From TrEMBL:
Keywords: Amino-acid biosynthesis, Metal-binding, Methionine biosynthesis, Methyltransferase, Transferase, Zinc
Cofactor: Zn(2+)
Keyword Zinc: yes
InterPro entries per UniProt: Cbl-indep_Met_Synth_N (IPR013215), Cobalamin-indep_Met_synthase (IPR006276), Met_Synth_C/arc (IPR002629), UROD/MetE-like_sf (IPR038071)
EC number of the protein: 2.1.1.14
Residues making up the signal peptide according to the UniProt record: none
Span of domain Cobalamin-independent methionine synthase MetE C-terminal/archaeal: 415-737
Entry's family note: Belongs to the vitamin-B12 independent methionine synthase family.
Protein's UniProt name: 5-methyltetrahydropteroyltriglutamate--homocysteine S-methyltransferase
Metabolic or biological pathway: Amino-acid biosynthesis; L-methionine biosynthesis via de novo pathway; L-methionine from L-homocysteine (MetE route): step 1/1
GO biological process: methylation
GO molecular function, one term: 5-methyltetrahydropteroyltriglutamate-homocysteine S-methyltransferase activity
């Protein structure tokens, strides 16, 4: 007996970030289009070879991308919104991704509960002709390298619809789409492709049952092409939809057995005899080596219901970096229990061999041994655990309620202006860090250079006329990695890059032990900045849930415990910042919304500890200290009460891309604290005009009492260039001046 193996997506950024480098060079006119496309192709071929070498039988292909694979499907399917119609080729592609003078980009939002962002399709009333030629070319090439192992990955029609903003009815859109998917499947079949993966992750969402009829009408039509369809789901279980999804006319169905309760559903409803079950068994969302005993138990249970199986990662491996063995500076005991994409391929192959009855005893013992060595390397921190046990309710409660502490906080003009924290991370700053890491400059040299950046940043903000200043975050590689680097219990990689959006990547730190603050983390830079200005400078921290969501967490203790440990560390930092003179401290929690479970029934449990962890981190602040928080990409109409329970004095939010949707939700939810709804989109290189910002401010003033409104961009400015930032902020301050005058005139 043999057990086949499958992959359902692979990292597409290149082992040495080739795609990012090529993209950035292309955007700054240092690379031509042909070389850019060639780079993406080379990365893709390299990935195929790696998977082939690892012995994967059905290799998912076609998920390589220049920017985002959802955008790729939008373009292939001809779903081009009116405002991009006059453009073509890459010019149009990148305009849709990043905007262009006068033409806003597609909205960008989180891909399910991950830190990956996709571009939200807008289904227009008029479609352009579909063009699958790039995809077919890729599939054809993949056949050359992989033969029948090449399995094209297609974003399913209903997932595409469910994740879109629609100008027409879903039914009408579905019938247009169906026509196009039929063409695609026929063309693939004509190429000699033997099977396709259709990814339908929306089947795990709480509202998936609403789409039942559409699935039941579309899939029989797709099946008629006669190309075997492999329906792929991930990130959670099928719950309400399990029974009817099993009846869809597909030849294979993949389920995630690392999250949710698919095993229980399988036991309850069984598995159809005419289909293959793709078992998502190796966790594609975390970086820990497998624990074979627990997985063999699950695999044994599953095999009681079907023997027609394939083993695979639980989702695309795009959520983990390429290769853990490259991380030479990590302690060996830790490195040996890490598993990135390449290691996960080997794990899938190992599990398949074992299930097929081959003797893998030695391999199993070796894995066991690496875990035992790791456990000795990272013993529990009893002091931290003791502190967690002794928490009291009052630790979560500020000493005065919002309405009572308000008057004690720093007085500011109406519509106070500020930024979200980071200022441009220029290549000079990054090069400086490389030099320091290589030992070419001393710590003192490095800090002096950072301080010079802070000084320049303070001066620029004063010249622009902002009310509340920031130090600029130049010392931080990333808002999560930076804290990881300073807390015990965290490890960080040198080359563990994962795509966050487009050309922007992150190196999520690894939480491997109990977390403790060993020294102040941000006080030095705060003090430098505040010493240079009479205006208030915000202390700037990252909150617990965001640190956890943008790291690879432990799996041996709960996320709540990890969040509380981080909260305790931040709490000490808040106290130290206050002592150092901070009157305003911002504790960013941008990932709170993203971490919300995909099933609504688990929201309360999550929100309860998530919000408590923020309170634990911040409640130590004196009443006169103004606590800010920031969230980006938040559709939080449905959790506005919980946002209020954070008890932050001021929150800044993303707003500009979602058409004031968030603002409406906040207003309708009766939010009573202060709020800065982003006045412009920082993810686009386009500089907003004063008029545009005035319009945005008017929308705010129409919806909320003046005393509640702050003025700020919708996120940090680190990805922008100074040439973009300075005029944009000048326009923002000018727009505020205009509004203040108008308000003055009215009140006279
Ligand atoms: N973790 C995280 N998730 C997030 C966000 C975030 O800020 N952090 N923001 C939202 C949007 N996502 C984002 C994700 C990444 C970046 C981003 O700017 N990433 C940088 C990398 C930041 C970094 O780690 N920089 C390092 C390493 C930089 C580097 O590439 N150095 C060069 C050498 C220096 C040079 O010559 O330029 C090299 O190693 O080759 C540093 O500053 O030290 C990038 O892709 O360019 C922005 C937003 C949501 N999710
Ligand atoms: C992704 S949220 C970013 C918040 C952070 N303070 C910054 O300005 O970059
Ligand atoms: Zn943000």
């Amino acid at each position: 007996m043999t057990v086949p193996t499958t992959t359902i997506g692979y990292p597409r950024i290149g082992k040495s970030r080739e795609v990012k480098k090529a993209l950035e060079a292309f955007w700054s006119n240092k690379l031509d289009e042909e070389t850019l496309l060639q780079t993406v192709r080379e990365v893709e071929i390299f990935n195929w070879k790696t998977q082939l070498k690892a012995g994967i039988d059905r290799i998912g292909i076609g998920d390589g991308t220049l920017y985002d694979s959802v955008l790729d499907w939008v373009v292939r399917l001809g779903l081009i919104p009116e405002r991009f119609r006059h453009l073509s080729g890459l010019d149009r592609y990148f305009a849709m991704a990043r905007g262009k003078e006068g033409i806003p980009a597609l909205e960008m939002t989180k891909w399910f509960d991950t830190n990956y962002h996709y571009l939200v399709p807008e289904i227009p009333t008029k479609f352009e002709p579909a063009d699958f030629s790039d995809f077919l070319e890729t599939a054809h090439l993949a056949q050359e390298f992989l033969g029948d192992r090449a399995i094209p990955i297609i974003l399913g029609p209903i997932s595409l619809l469910r994740l879109s903003n629609l100008e027409i009815s879903p039914e009408q859109a579905a019938s247009y789409l169906l026509e196009r998917y039929l063409i695609l499947l026929t063309q693939l079949k004509n190429l000699g492709i033997t099977e396709v993966q259709i990814h339908e992750p929306v089947l795990v969402l709480g509202d998936a049952a609403n789409w039942k009829e559409l699935y039941q009408s579309i899939y029989p039509s797709l099946a008629q092409v006669g190309l075997p369809l492999h329906l792929v789901t991930y990130f959670d279980d099928l719950r309400e939809t399990y029974a009817w999804v099993m009846q869809l006319p597909v030849t294979s169905i993949s389920l995630d057995f690392t999250r949710g309760r698919n095993l229980e559903l399988l036991k309850q409803y069984g598995f159809p005899a005419d289909k293959r079950l793709g078992i998502g068994i190796v966790d594609a969302r975390n970086i820990w080596k497998i624990r074979p005993e627990t997985l063999f138990y699950i695999l044994d249970e599953i095999q009681k219901f079907t023997s027609n199986i394939s083993l695979q990662p639980s989702a695309s491996l795009q959520f983990v970096p390429y290769d853990a063995t490259k991380e030479k500076h990590l302690p060996e005991a830790l490195r040996n229990v890490l598993s990135f994409a390449e290691q996960k391929l080997a794990e899938v192959a190992f599990l398949a061999k074992t299930v097929a009855g081959e003797n893998t005893k030695t391999e199993q013992e070796n894995i066991q041994k690496t875990w035992e060595i790791f456990e000795q390397f990272s013993p529990a921190n009893l002091t931290v655990q003791e502190k967690l046990r002794n928490l009291e309710l009052s630790d979560f409660e500020r000493s005065l309620s919002y309405s009572l502490r308000l008057s004690q906080q720093i007085p500011l003009p109406p519509l106070p202006t500020t930024t979200i924290g980071s200022f441009p991370q220029t290549s000079e700053v990054r090069k400086l860090r490389v030099k320091y890491k290589k030992g070419e400059i001393t710590l003192a040299d490095y800090q002096a250079a950072i301080d010079a950046e802070i000084a320049r940043c303070i001066q620029i903000q004063e010249e622009i006329g902002l009310d509340v200043l920031v130090h600029g975050e130049f010392e931080r590689t990333d808002m999560v990695e930076y804290f990881g680097q300073q807390l015990s219990g965290f490890a960080f990689t040198e080359n563990g890059w994962v795509q966050s959006y487009g050309s922007r990547y992150v190196r999520p730190p690894i939480i491997y032990g109990d977390v403790e603050r060993t020294a102040p983390m941000t006080v030095r830079e705060f003090k430098i900045a505040q010493s240079l200005t009479q205006k208030p400078v915000k202390g700037m921290l990252t909150a617990p849930v965001t640190i956890i969501n943008w790291s690879y967490p432990r799996t041996d203790i709960s996320r709540q415990d990890q969040a509380f440990q981080i909260a305790l560390a931040l709490r000490e930092e808040v106290a130290d910042l206050e002592t150092a003179g901070a009157q305003i401290i911002q504790v960013d929690e941008p990932a709170l919304r993203e971490g919300l479970p995909l099933k609504t029934e688990r929201w309360n449990e999550y929100l309860s500890w998530a919000i408590d962890s923020f309170r634990l981190a911040t409640a130590i602040a004196q009443p006169q200290t103004q606590i800010h928080t920031h969230m980006c990409y938040c559709e939080f109409g449905d959790i506005i009460q919980e946002i209020e329970r954070l008890d932050a004095d001021v929150i800044s939010i993303e707003n500009s891309r979602s058409n004031n949707q968030t603002l409406r939700e906040v207003t309708e939810g009766g939010y009573s604290h202060q709020i800065g709804n982003g006045t412009y989109d920082v993810h686009s290189p386009v500089v907003p005009t004063t008029e545009q910002i005035v319009r945005q401010l008017k929308a705010g003033i129409a919806n909320l009492p003046l005393s509640q409104i702050w003025v700020n961009p919708d996120c940090g400015l680190k990805t922008r260039r100074w040439e973009e930032v300075i005029p944009a902020l000048k326009n923002m301050v000018e727009a505020t001046r205009i509004m203040r005058e108008e308000i003055n005139d009215i009140s006279k």
